[in-house]
Amino acid sequence: MREIGRQRRLRGRAAIGLAAAAAIAVGGSLAASQAVAAPRTPATGGGGLSVSKAFFGSTVEPYTGKNTAVFRYTLRNARGMKVQILTYGGIVQDIWVPSRSGREANVVLGFKTLADYVKFDSPPVAPTTGVYFGETVGRYANRIAKGQFSLNQPGQGKVNYQLPVNNGPNALHGGIVGFGNHIWASQAVAGNGSVGVQLTLVSPNGDEGAPAGSPGCPNGCTGYPAQVKVVLTYTLNNRNQLVLHYKTTNQSKNLNTILNLTNHSYFNLAGESSFPGSAYGQLIQINANKYTPTDTTSIPTGSLASVFGTPFNFTHFFPMGARIADVSAPDNSPGFNQLLEAQGYDHNWVLNPGHNGPLGLNLCARALDPRSGRELTVWTDQPGVQFYTSNFLTGTLVGISGHAYRQGQAYTFETQHFPNSPNQPNFPSTELKAGQTVESSTIFAFSS
Q1: Strand partners, 230
Q2: What confidence tens digit (pLDDT) does each residue in 192-209 have?
Q3: I want to staple 340 with a disulfide (CB 3.0 to 4.6 A). Which of 101, 116, 272, 327 is the partner?
């Protein structure tokens, strides 16, 4: 248990090994001139909406091994909201929204430079994982037990697969080099009352495969089967809604695969530079009557436990920190205390059904900062959400505004299928059949 906790706490540390150096550098140095180019002429969607593009630096694209330019897209609306998105990792770098008095603040954690994202966000070194600030996580978000799963393949029957292990004994957030480590192709989009950026990534058959002795692969890794193409479109409208739309196609004709995509933004509605622990006083609501308790390695046990009578009950607004330390309270999970093991909340909630929101989506969660009046509402078509309270930020990382990030600095709403679903037949399936296309949407809607 303590070994797993130790490895998870390494998320915030700066150690970079040989595998990371290969992914980061050409000739041993990171090429990262930071946003030196002036933004290109903005495209507009009418009504005060605009999108512009600027050079943000360059780094090595792992698929090609070539130094590749990274761009930052800036989306703006007529109500004072601004979102900046990087082609590196499909990362949401910042989200600026006004308070009830009109004061604008950046409400997500992030880094100032490309060099910091490459070095700290999800460094490709097992067993150290990163913090994943704002990343698009895939091919499989969250954890897979021992990095192992099996699929029935056309004409082959049952086939076993092994992924790199990078979080204790498990695979986390896609593996050593996940979608957040890649540079996505991009183009600006505008029209229909919104502006945005469309990002595209093609993940090859065998992605994350590696020979024996490679980081996280002591006996070798098969990687993920099938080639998949992901098209992720971020759009911003004048309703202060940031819409994430994922369209994923399995381009292989005879290979099934697994898929679980999410965005890993850390929110603090008081502002990312607000005082340490400020998020503890923000009010949280999660539209879920059940959650999935985990074992000591953060793998769900397979049971769906009631949140009622436990600190996991966010069916109505509660301050995030009000019960986070109450390890004497029941959690409807036998064996050990969930909050103590995770050092806070880091669990999957099973969302209640009902699709009555924008785009026909289901209410996922809400957050409210009483002082500023900023409110976030999350809508999704996914069955679960990982609510994580930045338990392993230790003050060793410096954020975009020059402040160190500490425990309780922010929280995530990672809309998702459940962790370890490929090995839990009672969980919603994450299998993507050969030739199949699936689409999914999540909305982060702000108000004050």
Answers
A1: 201, 248
A2: 899 999 999 999 999 999
A3: 327
* Domain topology for 2-447: Beta-galactosidase; Chain A, domain 5 (2.70.98)
- Domain ranges in the chain are 2-447
Cβ atoms 126, 166 nearer than 8 A: yes
Active site residue 182: no
125 SS3 class: strand
Q: Of the ranges 34-48, 155-169, 275-289, 434-448, which one carries the lowest mean pLDDT score?
A: 34-48
Global model pTM greater than 0.85: yes
- Of 173, 264, 347, 403, catalytic: 264
Is 272 a catalytic site residue? no
Token couple for 415: 């809309």
Q: What is the DSSP string of 301-351?
A: -S--EE-TTSTT--SS-EETTSSTT-TTS--S-SSS-HHHHHTS-EEEEEE
pLDDT at 10: 36
- What's the start-to-end Cα distance of the chain, in Å? 42
Reduced to 3 states, what is the DSSP secondary structure of residue 24? Answer: helix
Q: 297 vs 122, 148, 168, 177, 258, CA distance in Å?
A: 19, 14, 7, 21, 21
Chain-centroid distance, C-alpha 319 = 23
| Beta-carbon count within 10 A of 380 CB | 27
Q: Token pair of 198, please?
A: 């469309």
User: Which entry of 135, 208, 375, 414 is annotated as an active-site residue?
Assistant: 414
Where b means 16+ CB within 10 Å and e means fewer, 29-61 reads ebbbeebeeebeebbebeeebbbbbebbbbbbb
Q: Which of 182, 186, 149, 187 is nearest to 165 (CA)?
A: 149
3-state secondary structure of 445: strand
How many CA atoms, within 13 angstroms, populate the side-chain half-sphere of residue 344? Answer: 23
Give Cα separations from 49 to 44, 102, 189, 199 (angstroms): 5, 18, 11, 19
